[in-house]
Structures are given as structure tokens and as C-alpha cells.
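Sharing a chain and its predicted structure for anyone who wants a worked example. Both blocks are below, sequence first, C-alpha cells second.
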Amino acid sequence: MDFKDQVKEASDIVRVIGEYVRLKKMGPSYKGLCPFHNEKTPSFNVHAAQQYFKCFGCGIGGDVFKFVQEIEHISFFEALKLLADRNGMQMPKRNEFVDPDAKARGSIEDMNGLAAQLFRNNLISTMGADARAYLTKRGLSWEMVEQFGLGLSDRNSGLLKLLQQQGYSNEQLETSGLISKRESDGRLFDKFRGRLMFPIHNESGKIIAFGGRALAEGDEPKYLNSPATPLYEKSSVLYNLNRAKNAARKFERMVLVEGYMDVIGVFAAGVEEVVASCGTALTAKQVRMMRRMASRIVVNFDPDPAGRNATEKSILIMLEEGVEVAVLELEDGLDPDEYVKKFGAEVYRNKLEQAGNYFYWLADRARGHFDMRTGEGKVKAFQFLLPSIQKIPEKIRRATVASDVAGYLGIEASLVLDEFKRAAVDRKEQVLQVPSRTVPHAEKLLLRLLAASTEVRQVMLPRLASMGAIGGFTTHSIFETMVHLHENQPDFNFHDLEARLDENDRGLMAELVFADEIGNEAVLMDQAEHFLKRLEEDAQRTRLSEVKARIKAAERAGNIDDAIRLTEEYTKLENLNRKGPASR
């Protein structure tokens, strides 16, 4: 068994995918919302026995390596290394799977690790006195500082010197996002200088970027983030998701705040299911990442104009992605971190529990925008709210929310219905359409049994191959692929088979593998044996007819010797046919 097979055997696909997607056991497989496309009804399936996943919505499927590659946006080699690391397995010293892009990402990952360590060392050194004083002033415990890996970048390009000593080229340094180049003279320098540093991790916990907060008066911008790199795309990353996901699954809730300090403050209050976007407006991709962990998102942005505008825009994106949205706006103009420090963790947690549905918050916004004493103002307020109502995917819930909001605004029900009927748009999910074909029940039984069991394949595939009858099957291409695989790789698995099938055959096999009514394997085996015997008998009768025709042809041609030989052959075949397939 080579190394990749060892890693695959050690990496249970249900456990691995369960770290990214909320899965629920349903029949012989597990189901959840697909992490690769927007859907409201689960069509993403994971089969424990076959160690295989398939989405019947967007069509993506494969083994555990394929899933990790797609979800982490990495190469096969990087997926192999990630899974090996999770299972405590040492990668062999060879580069057969390494491609240039993977090497580049690996170098950046190593440089990020060196940078994080240097920043931590700076923070605890004499140069970190002012930064430590700032953290104390903000009420951060040293436990939180260490848990989030906070550090300090120096002002003298100490990181550049360290990375150059490690032998990294100028091209690698610039690609890392840690080092910049002056346009005036081409000289390199540290991108982050004199800033409190926040490591940004991917979902697996690897450092992929940094955020830096200015500490000195006059340093702009206040927050500076890593640029896009082969490892980091800020619109696809949520700060603290690696720590938040377990709590989010447990409490069926994700709390979305604006900044790094807010995340740490809320986390320290015992609300671990908290994340923030990394210096960018919220994206649909980020919402889908949260939705994989929890169906409800509480938005707790700063209660200033910028925070309220961001909340309004975020609500529309979240509704489009089918999540349940609540809004928490804290009093006294405090952001989440400040609020926890002033009123305590318990008070903040109670506020979260009481967070109201988004449409009441939006309705209050509408009341502030328009003159609710006039009919025109009321209509404009409702029109302001209408886009968010239209984003609700379920028709009945849309109508209910529209009615509730109208009542809240004091608008006549008939007016609401007229506006709603004109503007509401029913939406339908796009589901992968697999070309249908009629497959005999016996063929389905055989395919399911052959896919499920190595032992069954060892017994049945040689018999099928010797009959030469599978060319007449509706699914002959799948059977022929199985026979060929078995001849060259007797212990092949479902992924080996699936990789060699065309799109239609892959869809059919996935349907069979994930079918709910698998039944008792012993009964299926009996049925498959019965079908095989019938096929063998059909093949024997066909052979008898062929020999009989050749006897007549030989007699007509006067070839007595050939006729006698063929008659003897016919007699032997006929005797075998009477005794049945077991005697052959």
C-alpha cells in the first residue's frame, strides 16, 4: 500500500467532511447542504462504506482528497499533506506529487509561520512594552493574546532580514504579501511596521495572512491587511472560523462582528461561535461558509452609520443564501468588545439570545428614513423593505413577513398585497438533471452489489467476463469497466471505478450507491446469483443454437467430418446445460 492509500485509509471521509459541513445520517449515507453551491434543500451526500461524496445539485463528487482539494482550494499534494498531518503521518521525502503552485503556497505558508513566531517574540521583548500596555488597556488577558497568536511587527524590516537569511528569493518575498518594494528605488521593506499583528487562519488552522493594527499616532490606515496571495483571498476567508466552527455547530448559531478585537472580546466572553470578515464587505461566499456550520446568523456590527449600512447590505446577502438572520444593536454606541468590557459577558450573552428578527431592525431603519405620518412615506418605507422580503426563498414565509412588516409600519393590508404581488418573484432551485434511462432491476442489483463488495466482485466479475454477454446490457459500459479494472486491480474501490466512467454513468452509479433501500445483502446476493445463472443459461442456449446452425450448414455442404465433430460438441453442451451452471 503506497503512502496516499495509507492516508486515505486513515482519513474517514464522514469525519473529515463533518469538520466543514453539518451532516445528518439518513439511511445508508449522510446528508447536508452542499458547500460548493447555493441550495436550500440538502442534496450533498456522503457514503461511509464507499468513502465517497456526491452532490446531486451541482454534480461534484469524489473521494476525501477531492473534497479537501475543492474546499481548501489546494492541489492534490497539499491535500495529501494536510490529511497526513491531521493523522500524525510523516510525509515521505519525495516530490512526485508536488507542482510549482503547491511549492509556492508551501513557501508562503512557511514564511507566514516564521513571521508569526517573530511577531510573538517581538511582543514579549522590550520593544513590545507599548503594545503590551495597549492590550492591557483594552482588557485582553494574556491567555487570549496567546490563544489568538497576537504579535508585534518592528519598524526596522526585521522580518525581511530573517526571511533573506532563510534563503528566500526576492520574488518569493514579494509574492508572500509580507514584503513590499518601493517604486522609487526598488528596495524591499516589511509591509507591516510597528503594528499589533493578528494572524489570519484558514478553516484548517493554517496561517494564511495577517492583519495589522496601527499603534502609533498618525499611522494610516488604522488596520492594514495582507494583500491577495496564492494562499489568501480575503473575500473567501472569515477571521476565527477555525476556532468558531465547533461551537457554531453545537449552538446552531454564528455571530458576525466587524473587527479582530471584537472577535477576541466576544470569544473571551464565552461566545466562541464568533467571526469577522477580513477588512472587506461581506460576500456570498463568506455567508455560505457560515451557513455550513449554522443556519442562524446574528449580525452584531458597530452601531454607527457605517456599521448600520454594512448590516443592511449584509442582510440582503444572507437572505439570498437562505439563512435565518437576526440583528443585535448594542446601546450606548458601543461595539461588541467595548460592551463586554463595560457590562460583562453574561449581559452580552443574554443580549445575543434576545436578538430580534432582521425585519424589525430594517423596519426601524425605514421609520427613520421616511415620514411615517403620511401615506406616501409609508409606501416608500414598504418599498425600502421589499427587496429584503423578496430574498426570502420560501413563498409562505415571504407572505407572512410582508404582512408582519406592513402591520409594524401601519400600512393597509390591501396595499401590501398589491405591491407584493407585483414585485414578489418565486424562485426555483437548479438541480442537476441526470439523463434518465431505463435500467433493468437485475442489472441495478448487480451493479450495487459489485460496487459494495470486493468479495462479490471476485466471484461474479470473472463469470460475467467469461460469458461474453455483458455487451447486451443497458449498462454494459459500467460492467466492462469493472471487468477491466478487476483484471488489473482486483481490490479497486468505488473511487477508482467512478474516475473511469463518463458523466452519465457516474450519475447512475452515484444514484445506486446512495439509494435508501439497499436491503439485506444476503437476499440481494441470492437475486444476483439467480440473474447470473439465467444469463449463463441464455448464453448456453445461444451457443447451442449457433452449433446447431453450423451442423446444418456442414451437412448441406457435404462436410461429414465437420458435422460429426460439431454434433459431439452439441451433445456435450446439451449435457452441461441440463446439469446447470454449477457444473461448468
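Comments welcome. The mean pLDDT is 86.
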